Amino acid sequence: MAWLFLFVAGFLEVIWALLMKQSVGFTRLWPSIGTIFFVLASFGLLSLAMRALPLGTAYTIWTGIGAVGAFAVGVVFLGEQVNPMRGIAAALIVCGIVLMTLSSDA
């Protein structure tokens, strides 16, 4: 269950990052409320995952999912630019997530 909690927490991190962007500096009510809700849900699931997973593994995977997911959402839904350097950076983060997952004892 810890791995499921961790991956859902990472997915929720992408959602709250998108909502934070949509809140325009917390000046729009519903995206702001959504940001706070999903931050709390993401942190809550991360804390549950950390009961069974090592800190370094859990935090690295959580932030990696959030970083790559936010990058992908920005490109696909917000029209943010993609270039070779950004693509390589995202690929390296994914490689780090995979290596961290494979190296975990949990």
Structure description:
- With 106 residues, this protein is an all-alpha fold.
- The chain has one domain.
- It contains four helices and no strands.
- Helix 1 packs antiparallel against helix 2 and helix 3 packs antiparallel against helix 4.
- The N and C termini lie close together (11 Å).
- It is found in: Cell membrane.
- Belongs to the drug/metabolite transporter (DMT) superfamily. Small multidrug resistance (SMR) (TC 2.A.7.1) family. Gdx/SugE subfamily.
- Its main location: membrane.
- Pfam families: Multi_Drug_Res (PF00893).
Q: Could you give a quick summary of the protein structure above?
A:
The protein is built from four helices and no strands.
**Low-confidence parts, pLDDT < 50 over ≥5 residues?**
none
Order of helices and strands: HHHH
Q: Roughly how many Å apart are the termini?
A: 11 Å
Structural class: mainly alpha
The radius of gyration over CA amounts to: 15 Å
Helix content: over 70%
Overall mean pLDDT: 95
Total discrete domains: 1
Q: Which geometry do the CA atoms define?
A: flat
The overall strand count is 0
Query: In DSSP terms, counting alpha (H) and pi (I) runs of 4 or more, how many helices?
Result: 4
Biggest sheet layout: none
The percent range for strand residues is under 5%
